[in-house]
Design a protein that fits this description.
Length: 110
């Protein structure tokens, strides 16, 4: 299983009281295909840099999860069926490399 991060944008016409249901829908779909939710962050309404498909803003949510790589295409296929989900992007979270702490060289005594 790999670790993924998904950024989900819900349609601006969605009522704010339905956002909890849509967030539960997304996390439920991840779990249906065998994923495990690690973290979920609801980021609220944000304006787009430019108008997309006659829409000026959307409700953003970020979800970190573990999922088998073969199941990502199954998940994206299921997510495309929801009309309230305007856009989404799923990326692999690479583990951060461990960097040794810098130790300055010791000056030789003269």
């Amino acid at each position: 299983m790999k670790t993924y991060e998904g950024l989900f944008i819900f349609d601006e016409t969605v009522q704010e009281d339905r956002l909890k249901d849509l967030a539960a829908y997304v996390t439920g779909e991840i779990e249906k295909v065998g994923g495990k939710i690690l973290d979920k962050l609801e980021m609220g309404r944000r304006s787009f840099a430019r108008v997309m498909q006659k829409k000026e803003s959307g409700f953003y949510m970020s979800v970190s999860f573990k999922l088998a790589p073969a199941q990502v295409t199954v998940l994206t296929g299921r997510l495309h069926l929801n009309d309230d989900l305007f856009r989404f992007q799923i990326t692999i979270l690479e583990p951060k490399p461990v960097v040794a702490a810098y130790t300055p060289p010791v000056a030789a005594k003269a």
